[in-house]
Structure formats: structure tokens, C-alpha cells
Specification:
This protein is of the alpha+beta class. The chain contains eight helices and 18 strands.
Length: 345
């Protein structure tokens, strides 16, 4: 998802949401493992209150290639369930529009046709692409939404050894984002590719945008307090059921049972990029899914994760993707340049 702030995030018109998602109240003494990825969210306050906590209702759904785990705090169960339906519908809608794995998505149609002709896409896809291009320029190409061909080549989920070096080198240092021609129209947008090797892949930004859309749906339904966590992209809405800020623990990349850091969040997004979940091992080296556009190969770094907080999840997602593996000095410099209320966690 892109880095547009929440005021420019449009949840769109969701279709009818599935009604079979299970939900249940969570007791105040339980710990929520919200999302199986980078975060653990504790529902137990750091300072015990002796009043009655409000009901917390949680749902999970596979979407965007991961598990979306949502929780809302509200006294009306019917309203809470309706809000969760709307939020999940937004995640599904964004996924269908921006995934590269569907030929009929905006991204799928562009990848099939945009090297030969201009392709019209939904205005929100255009906004996400604009934000992606902003981050590509800001990061001097370390973030490249047009590196889809190299991502497909590596396909770390199904590989057991690296692809041939010659095949990798053809995508290295190409700055393929410069080949994306984005034209904003009245009520729509058009994209065209000026390089036949360019392919869209919004995997480093669309998830954050989906989180923001889900949060907008919760707010529109009357929810002021809740959590949206989609595989390492999280937004903490309002307060926990005990009235405290949400306590978000960041897992250690070396041991998922260990919390590396704890954050206290309210109305703020956080995103983590890491090399420890999607990878394969070959000749003693870890080959992960976060590619460096300069080499078209997995980024080499001693730091296995990077966590960014921001006012919106689209911003946190793009920043964490763009800056993973860079030096702390460069990360802080680029966050200052971005000027979008971003910080290193």
C-alpha cells in the first residue's frame, strides 16, 4: 500500500462481506497472538485496573498471502461483527485489485497489456502507484514497484537454489520504476510501461494500504478502538479494552518466542520488514524475498528486521520495505526527508 495519509485513503464500495467468519469475546487475562508474523499484541494492561474491561471480539482470515487478524472493542456485539465484516471486505477488495497473482486485477491487467498500450486502472490503484513512485524516488531506487519480473524469478517460496546469475543480472540496476508512466484522469488513472522487462509488484505497499482501508471501514461503522494486523503491517486504533494504549511486542528474528521490543500504541501504524519468514537456504546462505533493485538479488545485511511507525500503515509499509537493510544513519536521514510522521521503532 502506498504512503498516502488517512485523509486521502478511500475505502471504496465493498461488496457483500462473507458472514461465516467466526468471532468470540476474549477474556481480559488472555494474550492475543494477533498475527503469526512480526507482532504479538497483549490484551493484558501493564498496570492492572480493577474495573470491568469492555468486550473484545477477534476474527482471523487468510488474505493477501498471509493471515489478517482483527480485533474490535465495543459493547454491542452485533455492531462489532458488522464492523469486522466491513473491514475484512475491504482487505479482500484491495487484494483482488492489487495482487499480481490475478489476471483480472488492476496489476494483472497492467502486467499483461501495459507494455503495448495504456491500461486504465481504478483511481485508488493510481494513488497507491503514485505513492510507490514517490518512495522509489525518495529512496534512490531502493524501493522499486516495477521489479515484478525479478520477484517472479526468485520466487523464494518454491526455490531450493538461486536462479542463474545471468538471469538475475538482466534486472540489476535498471531503475525500472522510471519506466512506469502514470497518468491521472478524471475518475480514473492510466498506466503504461516503457520497458518490456517492467512488471508491477505492489507487495511492499499494497498490504499497508489494505490495513488503512480496513481501519477506515471500522471507523465508518462506529468503532473507535481496535486492531488490524495483516502479516507484519498493523494499525492500533484508539485504546485496548482496559482503556490503555495497545501493547505491541515485536518478535525477535532469531527466536519468535522472544520479544525484541515492546511498543505502546494508539491511533498509529507499525510495519516490520524482515528476512526470516520468506526465504530458502542454499550453501549456508539465506536467500529471502526482499530484493535490492541495484542487484536484483536478496539484500545482504546483518540486521534481519526493520520496524517503522507512522500515522498510516501505507507509509509504514513502504518505508519498512524501502529502508530494510540500509544503515541506521541513512534510514533516519530518509525518514526525515519523507516528512510523513515516520519514525524508527
Amino acid at each position: 500500500m502506498s504512503r498516502a495519509d488517512r485523509s486521502s485513503t478511500q475505502p471504496g464500495q465493498p461488496g457483500q462481506a462473507p458472514q461465516q467468519w467466526p468471532g468470540r469475546p476474549i477474556g481480559r487475562r488472555e494474550v492475543l497472538a494477533l498475527g503469526i508474523g512480526a507482532f504479538v499484541v497483549a490484551s493484558v494492561p501493564l498496570v492492572r485496573r480493577f474495573g470491568r474491561s469492555r468486550p473484545l471480539i477477534r476474527r482471523s482470515l487468510p488474505v493477501m498471502g498471509t493471515i489478517a487478524d482483527l480485533a474490535v472493542v465495543h459493547d454491542d456485539p452485533a455492531l462489532a461483527h458488522a464492523a469486522l465484516d466491513a473491514a475484512f471486505a475491504e482487505l479482500v477488495r484491495v487484494d483482488r485489485s492489487m495482487t499480481r497473482f490475478r489476471d483480472d486485477s488492476d496489476v494483472g491487467r497492467a502486467n499483461r497489456l501495459a507494455a503495448r498500450q495504456a491500461v486504465r486502472v481504478h483511481p485508488e490503484t493510481g494513488r497507491v502507484l503514485k505513492t510507490a513512485l514517490d518512495w522509489a524516488r525518495l529512496s534512490d531506487g531502493r524501493f522499486d514497484p516495477m521489479l515484478g519480473s525479478a520477484v517472479e524469478l526468485w520466487d523464494v517460496a518454491h526455490r531450493e537454489e538461486p536462479p542463474p546469475r545471468q538471469a538475475v543480472r538482466q534486472f540489476a540496476g535498471r531503475a525500472l520504476f522510471r519506466s512506469l508512466q502514470l497518468t491521472e484522469l478524471s475518475g480514473a488513472a492510466e498506466v503504461a510501461f516503457r520497458d518490456p522487462d517492467a512488471r508491477l509488484d505492489l507487495g511492499g505497499i499494497a498490504k499497508g494500504y489494505g490495513v488503512d482501508c480496513a481501519v477506515a471501514a471500522l471507523r465508518a461503522a462506529g468503532i473507535q478502538d481496535g486492531l488490524v494486523n495483516v502479516g507484519g503491517d498493523l494499525y492500533a486504533l484508539g485504546r485496548s479494552e482496559d482503556g490503555d494504549p495497545w501493547t505491541v511486542g515485536i518478535r525477535s528474528p532469531d527466536d519468535p518466542a522472544v520479544m525484541m521490543k515492546t511498543l505502546r500504541l494508539g491511533d498509529r501504524a507499525v510495519a516490520t520488514s524482515g528476512d526470516y519468514e520468506q526465504y530458502f537456504m542454499y550453501a549456508g546462505r539465506r536467500y529471502h524475498h526482499l530484493l535490492d533493485p541495484r542487484t536484483a538479488a536478496p539484500r545482504e545485511t546483518d540486521d534481519h528486521s526493520l520496524t517503522i511507525t507512522a500515522a498510516s500503515c501505507i507509509q509504514a509499509d513502504a518505508a519498512a520495505t524501502a529502508l530494510f537493510g540500509d544503515s541506521e544513519a541513512n534510514i533516519r536521514r530518509l525518514l526525515d526527508r519523507a516528512g510523513a510522521d515516520l519514525s524508527l521503532a
